[in-house]
Amino acid sequence: MAALTLRGVRELLKRVDFATVPRRHRHKKKWFGDLWPSIRVSLLSEQKYGALVNNFAAWDHVSAKLEQLSAKDFVNEAISHWELQSEGGQSAAPSPASWACSPNLRCFTFARGDVSRFPPARPGSLGVMDYYLMDAASLLPVLALGLQPGDIVLDLCAAPGGKTLALLQTGCCRNLAANDLSTSRIARLQKILHSYVPQEIRDGNRVRVTSWDGRKWGELEGDTYDRVLVDVPCTTDRHSLHEEENNIFKRSRKKERQILPVLQMQLLAAGLLATKPGGHVVYSTCSLSHLQNEYVVQGAIELLANQYSIQVQVEDLTHFRRLFMDTFCFFSSCQVGELVIPNLMANFGPMYFCKMHRLT
Fold this sequence. Notes:
By secondary structure, this protein is α/β, with parallel strands linked by helices. It has helices spanning 6-15, 28-31, 36-44, 59-68, 74-87, 96-99, 140-145, 162-169, 183-196, 199-202, 217-220, 237-242, 254-258, 260-274, 294-308, 318-323, and strands at residues 50-53, 72-73, 107-109, 131-134, 151-155, 173-179, 207-210, 225-231, 275-285, 312-314, 330-331, 338-340, 351-358. Strands 5, 6, 7, 8, 9, 10, 11, 12 and 13 form a 9-stranded mixed β-sheet that branches.
């Protein structure tokens, strides 16, 4: 396979649909219209968290404790509600392929408008931590990936490790490769795995942790994986508002910020190349920027078509938005994929995710 060249990706980014983006949409205020004041206030307010139950702990006991806090498992509650509606003929059930969520995930959240906090997680009776606190919207890319038992899975940009942990919670990974270029971030990932995952799983053949350049994964292990998660480095909009140190919006990091979509497209293209024909990829960011979201997806798809004659299809996740709309606030105007936007009543996100099917 030919290498993905920096110049080639830059040229593609100049062409792919960017000419059709009106200048008035280059700024978040105008891109989100009347929603922007609410989004901005929410970004500046305290973020809500979810408690991802650790299935390697005494998960039933943990779930009961979380229920006592008046929290609800938003995943299984939404799926149960949808199934009841389908049985009663109140909604048209989607086809099995588009319906499939990754199984065995339990994540508790407080109701809309409830700003209660979960207590810090502690080691349970089985020697691992009971639950993992995370932005509950971060679980959506893993759910959307639709893992099946026996899948060979790649988490291309795995650190700090919340989504990697969620992938393992499904019980579906025959093998999981967790990669991140940053050695310091890999250390954080290893710490999470050590705290939440039993030693026999960590030390066995099921989990492989690497620190390689993800942009080269298509050359290293092309056509290998059933499911690939590409949760790319991004502007991390919420954290950037609250952290001065090493903030990507600093003037000194302008060039790095400008070429970020190039890196993101290279990583997504590499993830697609690493996927088997017939496999699935989910691309995700925690950014509101359409230039880091929809346009990277569209650019990577065109890149694979033109440079590798590989056809990739975007999966419709409309049903996914409907499934979880009671927990999250979704932006309704994405061209491809779905975007959770912060809202004071449901202050999760931002989280963009798009599912793709590699056809050839």
